[in-house]
User: Fold this.
Amino acid sequence: MWPRILLLTLGTFAIGTDGFIVAGILGAISTETHVSISTAGRLVTAFAVVYAISSPLIASLTATVPRRRLILGALLVFILGNAGAALATTYAGLLAARVVAALASAAFTPCASVAAATLAGPSHRGRALSLVLGGITMSTIVGVPLGAWIGGFRAAFWLVTGLGVAALLGLARLLPDLPPPPAVGLRDRLKALRTPGVPTTLTVTALAMAAGFTVYTYIGPLLTETLRADAGTVSLVLVVFGCAGTLGNGLSGWLADRWGARQTVTVSLVVVMGVLACLPTLADTLPGTLVAITLWNGAGWLLLPAQQLRLLSAAPHLGQILISLNASAMYPGIGSAGLLGGWIIDIWDVRALGPAAALILAVATILHGASSRGRVKARKPEAVA
Assistant:
């Protein structure tokens, strides 16, 4: 069981590295494809928007497809997409390859989670899900900084391609046939959106992602401006960023149990807002930068598990649907961040990214406060459907 789940984790590690790696190689993409930094940042937007739109559609359209076939097929398309990105000679070709990789990622990630839960059985399901989703978290610690360190966007995408090949070969050998789960149609997902308090909670998730990724997408150009950072320095910052996020993700559940989910979300929003507002000053030195990104991503990753708890509390019988909707809400935020950050750089300056993101978080904090006084209560969830 566990070797198979570890191979699924390798797949999500490759997916996570692919999804976030552009932030570390943005300068190389800009230089080698002869486009501006803001135009290169739109690759993040394209990936995120395609993922957000296609994920629920693919889940509905492939509901009856055997899980093994879907997982292996998605990985094969993922490999082709990233190989295409590594071989792209134009920005248009690179953009097309990113769309292909996003479609494959949207098919693989939810399916890998379901497969892991099925393989583990009821007694080990929580650990299996944590391990598979941990592959995405680990990508921010290892995969993304490694991609930034090796230099050049082609080498970075070949790295992702290799990870995908390793996962595909292992799963083709070891993954058994698995039955498809009960189907959840688009109509059921849309019904869940009408649950009182849920739209506001999902909006807060999207705004928080938009704020964080407005800065994260352009972290390389920002550090180049403030620190004259080279690839090694950017890699170091990304490693610390990923480690802080992993710690914050681990603390979130404990804090939600101790403080309540509502208070945990509030702390996350307020701390990140304060750090990003001060980022132009903090990022002038390497120690200041490391302190800032530790507080920023450590507090930032408190948000998502606590938001899941709030949604489960709102409608326990719709638990699985609401959790998937919360995951989908991340990607419109991430997608808009690429456009917003590029616009801020074009109109103002790369140093304006942090304060602009702080304003977005101020709106999210206000909405969260209004939602907290409504029907979404942070209580211990009941049995989840």
Summary: The domain at 186-385 is CATH 1.20.1250.20 (Growth Hormone; Chain: A;). The longest helix spans residues 91-120.
